[in-house]
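Lecture 7 notes: from sequence to structure.
We start with the chain below.
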Amino acid sequence: MSVAGVLLAAGAGRRMGLPKSLVRDRDGRAWLSRSVDVLSAGGCDRIVVVLGAGADEATSLLAEASTTPSRIDTVLAADWTEGMGASLRAGLRAIAETETEGAAEAVLVHLVDLPDVGADVIRRVLAGAPAGPGTLARASYDGSPGHPVLLGRDHWMPVAEAAQGDRGARDYLASRAVWLIECGDLATGRDIDRPDPER
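Predicted structure tokens for the same chain:
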């Protein structure tokens, strides 16, 4: 199954003190470039990075990615202040407008603030999900649904239309059968919202 990655990295990160697209670990590694590497190494053929707050500076961090897919694009979510839903809409629409029929069958949606989610999680989700344009699957961590989320082509526009505020695709997914793929042995899947003095 050909899969494109959509990395949501538009938020201002108010509790973090700076946009999460600009956060670096203690070792200096940018979350943004790391997340691109994770999606690429995990099996995404193309990646769309959705930016908003700090977009100009974040764009320069993409050059730090050590592995790149055959295609990486950025898109600005002009209404990023409305929340994750705006970023998700921007990413899905960018994919839908540029992917020809028969290209990517699915999109894997990932978040920039999941630093312990590695390529092994991406590979497991892609390997464990049903193939085809109707697929709906997501990682779970000790039974709790999380990210990344795999959306087959049939769901791109319905999810984009339903995505609102900070709920993203939550309501859409809650009303449908979603294949859960347990990854709690690989990562916690917790998003990081505040500075960690140990990071």
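Points to note: The chain is about 30% helix and 20% strand. Residues 84-98 form the longest helix (15 residues).
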